[in-house]
């Protein structure tokens, strides 16, 4: 199967068919998403917390991230592959940001674009967000960009925690809408809305003429994205309100590993007939 292109995603958008997107961090989880026919695989920087055990997405470096992008890109199937721009790899200058985006695109010919977290100017500020400028520069260089707005985890401290965005005042809601429009004007092929009231995201989805992908943005956007470890229930405990567990892979995995270690302890695994190998009888006599 040939991977989907941006035109294929636009065709779904025009037909008002929801676009499906999920994260993957390695070859196996990417292959699962491919087999399930997901439209888009995102190598998200949630990798840091959901697969590598870091406390924050701000801790992961570019080399570490590229290693996982390459593994995901070894999967085969219909998905269009998007990758995050990790924290600290693009903020110091536009030049550095462009270099980082190129190095991510060069991980594999399968990488179709980059996603950048973009801030909404606070209060009365009319200052343009740096990431918006970078998005403009990347688009002008032919690198497809998805702008990520609303709750932007890399800016967790600037936002004073993981909170719904655009829910407190009309000004905040308008700010998010304006940022979405600016990203569209910058040439972004899509906008991702995280943790935004659905009235606000519906409004944005109606006004924009590019696909809007939501996580915690309600059902009125053009597509949905979730973190695969949330979907599969890979970790114990609850998932955030914006996500949903569709199973309990954590319990299943621990149970299966326990079954294996119990069988080893009880000496019922391995079974010489089922799992073992035989030596030719005549060789065995010679050996003796
Ligand atoms: O890193 C990530 O997984 C993301 C999605 C939650 C959108 O950015
Ligand atoms: Na991310």
Automatic annotation (TrEMBL):
Keywords: Pantothenate biosynthesis, Transferase. SUPFAM superfamilies: Phosphoenolpyruvate/pyruvate domain. One of its GO terms (molecular function) is 3-methyl-2-oxobutanoate hydroxymethyltransferase activity. GO terms for biological process: pantothenate biosynthetic process. InterPro entries: Pantoate_hydroxy_MeTrfase, Pyrv/PenolPyrv_kinase-like_dom, Pyrv_kinase-like_dom_sf. One of its GO terms (cellular component) is mitochondrion. Pathway: Cofactor biosynthesis; (R)-pantothenate biosynthesis; (R)-pantoate from 3-methyl-2-oxobutanoate: step 1/2. Its EC number is 2.1.2.11. The keyword DNA-binding does not apply. It is an enzyme of class 2 (transferase). It catalyses: (6R)-5,10-methylene-5,6,7,8-tetrahydrofolate + 3-methyl-2-oxobutanoate + H2O = 2-dehydropantoate + (6S)-5,6,7,8-tetrahydrofolate. PANTHER family: 3-METHYL-2-OXOBUTANOATE HYDROXYMETHYLTRANSFERASE. HAMAP family: PanB. Belongs to the PanB family. Catalyzes the reversible reaction in which hydroxymethyl group from 5,10-methylenetetrahydrofolate is transferred onto alpha-ketoisovalerate to form ketopantoate. This is 3-methyl-2-oxobutanoate hydroxymethyltransferase. The lineage of its organism: Eukaryota, Fungi, Dikarya, Ascomycota, Saccharomycotina.
């Amino acid at each position: 199967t040939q991977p989907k292109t941006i035109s294929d995603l636009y065709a779904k958008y025009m037909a008002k068919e929801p676009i499906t997107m999920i994260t993957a961090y390695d070859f196996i989880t990417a292959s699962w998403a491919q087999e399930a026919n997901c439209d888009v695989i995102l190598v998200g920087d949630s990798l840091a917390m959901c697969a590598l055990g870091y406390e924050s997405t701000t801790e992961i470096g570019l080399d570490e991230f590229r290693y996982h992008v390459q593994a995901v890109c070894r999967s085969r199937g219909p998905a269009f592959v998007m990758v995050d721009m990790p924290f600290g790899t693009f903020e110091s200058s536009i030049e550095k940001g462009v270099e980082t985006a190129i190095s991510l695109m060069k991980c594999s010919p399968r990488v179709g674009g980059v996603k950048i977290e973009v801030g909404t100017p606070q209060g009365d500020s009319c200052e343009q967000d740096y990431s918006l400028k970078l998005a403009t520069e990347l688009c002008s260089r032919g690198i497809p960009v998805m702008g990520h707005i609303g709750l932007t985890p890399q800016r967790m401290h600037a936002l004073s925690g993981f909170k719904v965005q655009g829910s407190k005042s009309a000004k905040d809601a308008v700010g998010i809408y304006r940022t979405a429009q600016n990203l569209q004007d910058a040439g972004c092929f899509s906008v991702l809305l995280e943790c935004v009231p659905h009235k606000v995201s519906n409004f944005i989805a109606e006004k924009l003429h590019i696909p809007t992908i939501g996580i915690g943005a309600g059902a009125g956007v053009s597509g949905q994205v979730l973190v695969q470890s949330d979907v599969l229930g890979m970790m114990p405990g609850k998932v955030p309100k914006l996500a949903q567990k569709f199973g309990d892979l954590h319990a299943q995995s621990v149970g299966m590993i326990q079954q294996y270690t119990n069988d080893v302890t009880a000496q019922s695994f391995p079974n010489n007939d089922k799992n073992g190998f035989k030596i030719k009888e005549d060789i065995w006599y010679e050996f003796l």
